[in-house]
Specification:
Length: 641
């Protein structure tokens, strides 16, 4: 171990931390420190990342109590390389605002990047800044995101001076207009002194500014101004002239909206070797790097072009259309680039270009992303070699005929029996295969609030997981033959579904419960089983009264801890989500006239309690099975004030 590193952290994985620190390059960039549950603890930047990260673990380094507490929780370290320290500073600021790490004090912002929303679903649309895009009407339109919120507010203020629009979301007076109408800042929307159709024309003009169509807007306004002038309506012509001058001043003074619409882009590059192809996607918004996504694929399965295409399909199919940029830079030309561009254009609702730059600033962006992909590939290659050795050791420990290709981990999560769930995580060749993960809701009626039973829960989950395999065996199938022969009667997908090793999170009790389930299924001879207890990191195997004698820092035990910790994280996340849903439903159940079916309909439509709270009575009434009377009860419940 490096003498400069002292294991003062509580994650009990000093070997992993030491390996991570030694793999970090001494280049400008940002480092991201995470805890055992993959939560981001701290984000920092440095001119030399490796030197800065090492300083946290030096024996004689005097750390403040706050930083010492943070260091004790570090279990993983990621990094992003930049070209200069200035770029690292900008990236650090954006990442802190996005992820809000607990131990970052400076530059911390409790808000997301803002958008401008035009509520076209209203009779008289409003224009406002928001950081929440979900649960809005489908007709409402968003522009952004905008990184500089101060500049955005100033822009919106200037726009509302140029064009007469509603200045308030709610009227100040019930039966009369306010001062904004008197000074011609508002056309009297609150008293409907202007028709909705005429008012929407003004809003349409404003939307053209946010869409970057300022030249088209000025041409349109010039035509209208000349029309008024020819009709001798000089007062109206003067108002249009002032609007045109205001637009010119807005563009000259800020140059934010047009730049934002053209600079929003994603940059994609890759690095590969004989084993892995690593793809990295950098999200550039307003010229700043706000996020980085990484994808990895086996090189033997697809060439780099197809891997990048798969990444694009997977990534953009899950995004809201406002999150898709207008420009995507890709290092190499894709086989179906035009088709993919058309598909993303349909998702966004406007033109999206896919470019393959080689020179100038865009080419430099590609090279920056490629550098990060290359470093990630080098780290992954080292990890792969270590993982391969660990798998070989596991095969020797458990007397397996081949190295364990598929390892499954199981854990139970609950609070005193409430919302009991279980997780099944899968590691393929030592790496998490999240598309194989499964979640279980514990169905046993005896497990409820105030009464928990982890042993019974483990028995239920293992029984449900292997019940069909037990049926196949009863029908005469040789399971060992099926595992070896990928073209078995079960089909290749099903035959690869059988694990080489199962890990239970717990001690001897949990292991015995799993073994009893396999015994009842007549599969105890076909499944290799073990358990790993958290307290002393003790490894148990069936029929052994004491744990195996092994070092906590042995590579195979480190790999099993990774499986165990991932199963724990996945189970805990599912439990918290289920508990949160139950609490939301219980809040709705307090309203007279609402039962489980109506609660399900409301949450299915609005997605959250907050959305229901802000909905109008009309919006609530349109939900099937609700009606106007119940909608009024729901609205009154959330708006008693």
């Amino acid at each position: 171990m490096n003498r400069n590193l002292t294991p003062i952290y509580l994650c009990n994985d000093s070997v992993k931390i030491n390996r991570l620190v030694e793999s970090i390059p001494d280049l400008p960039g940002c480092y991201i420190m995470k805890d055992n549950d993959d939560n981001i603890l701290y984000i920092g930047k440095s001119k030399k990342i490796k030197t800065r990260v090492k300083s946290y673990f030096r024996k004689n380094n005097e750390l403040t109590p706050r930083i010492l507490l943070m260091v004790r929780q570090i279990c993983d370290i990621e990094f992003i390389v930049t070209d200069t320290e200035v770029e690292a500073l900008t990236l650090e600021s954006n990442l802190i605002k996005q992820h809000k790490p607990y131990f970052n004090i400076l530059l911390k912002d409790d808000k997301k990047y803002p958008y401008v929303c035009i509520s076209w679903s209203d009779k008289y649309p409003s224009i406002f800044i928001t950081r929440r895009r979900r649960n809005r009407h489908i007709k409402d339109k968003f522009y952004g995101p905008f990184v500089d919120v101060t500049l955005l507010r100033n822009t919106l203020f200037v726009i509302k001076k140029i064009f007469p629009v509603r200045q308030r979301l709610r009227p100040l007076y019930k039966n009369k207009t306010c001062l904004n109408y008197s000074i011609e800042r508002c056309p009297g929307v609150c008293q409907e002194l202007i028709s909705s159709q005429e008012y929407r024309k003004t809003i349409k003009n404003i939307s053209m500014i946010f869409e970057g169509q300022t030249d088209e807007l000025k041409t349109k306004l010039n035509t209208i101004m000349l029309k008024y002038s020819n009709n001798l309506e000089f007062e109206k012509a003067l108002k249009i002239k002032l609007q045109i001058e205001g637009i010119d001043k807005l563009i000259q003074s800020q140059k934010m909206i047009e730049a934002d619409s053209s600079i929003n882009r994603d940059v994609i590059s890759y690095a590969k070797n004989d084993i892995y192809t690593c793809v990295q996607l950098f999200q550039m918004r307003s010229g700043k790097l706000i996020a980085r996504l990484a994808f990895t694929s086996a090189t033997e399965s697809l060439n780099e072009g197809l891997v990048i295409q798969k990444v694009i399909e997977q990534h953009y199919s899950t995004l809201n259309k406002v999150e898709i940029p207008n420009e995507i830079l890709v290092e190499i030309e894709l086989d179906k680039q035009d088709l993919i561009s058309e598909w993303i254009t349909e998702l966004k609702g406007q033109k999206v270009k896919i470019l393959n730059p080689k020179r100038h600033k865009k080419g430099q962006l590609i090279q920056l992303v490629k550098r990060n992909a290359t470093i990630e590939l080098a780290r992954l290659s080292v990890e792969n070699e270590n993982t391969k050795n660990s798998l070989e050791d596991l095969a020797n420990i458990f007397d397996l005929e081949t190295i364990p290709h598929r390892i499954e981990g199981y854990d139970i999560s609950h609070i005193q029996g409430s919302d009991a769930v279980a997780s099944q995580v899968v590691f393929i060749n030592g790496l998490p295969a999240k598309h194989h993960y499964r979640k279980y809701k514990i169905k046993d009626n005896s497990i409820k609030i105030g009464h928990s039973d982890d042993y019974l829960s483990i028995y239920e989950v293992i029984t449900r997981r292997f019940k069909r395999w037990s049926t196949y065996k009863k029908e005469g199938l040789d399971i060992n033959c099926a595992k070896k022969n990928k073209e078995s009667i079960l089909g290749s997908n099903l035959s690869s579904d059988f694990p080489d090793l199962i890990l239970i999170d717990g001690g001897k009790g949990q292991l015995k419960s799993a073994l009893r389930a396999l015994h009842d299924l007549k599969l105890e001879e076909d499944v290799k089983l073990c358990s790993l207890a958290k307290k002393n990191e003790e490894l148990f195997i069936p029929l052994a009264n004491s744990p195996l004698d092994c070092n906590k820092e042995d590579p195979p035990l480190i790999l099993l801890r990774r499986v165990r910790d991932e199963a724990h994280r996945f189970a805990l996340t599912f439990h918290r989500k289920r508990r949160s849903t139950r609490l939301k439903r219980s809040a709705l159940s307090e309203i007279t006239g609402i039962g489980p079916k109506r609660i399900k309909s409301l949450l299915s439509h609005f997605k959250s309690i907050q959305a229901i709270q802000h909905a109008t009575r009309e919006d609530i009434a349109i939900i099937p099975g609700v009606g106007e009377e119940l909608a009024l009860n729901i609205w009154n419940y959330f708006n008693e004030e």
